[in-house]
Design goal:
With 107 residues, the protein is mostly beta strands. The chain is 9% helix and 33% strand. The protein is built from one helix and seven strands; from the N terminus they run βββαββββ. A four-stranded antiparallel β-sheet has the order 1-4-7-2.
Amino acid sequence: MAADEHLGAQWFHGTRHTLKRGLVMEGGHAASNQGYGQPGEHVYYSSRRDVAKDFAEAGYGPRHNLDAPPRLYQVEPIEGHEADPDEESEFQSFRARRARVIRQVAY
């Protein structure tokens, strides 16, 4: 995907964490939403709400709390937007080193 092809697109990040509008998420600085909660190098998001919801439901919440409610946020990539190499293209999953929270959207 070309560097500016993502402009104007809507991207969704699913998580069980509460995020504030304007927060800049950076890879490598917070526990991962998936797996063992180790910091990942990227922030992941999708142009498909259903895919972001699936990731929210599969993810850990604060302090690995699986009972925390899943949430969905609109985000915008800031640095390093690229296709997620670990997902099939049909999931329209992407990643960036940094992404900003635009707003929480209805789940």
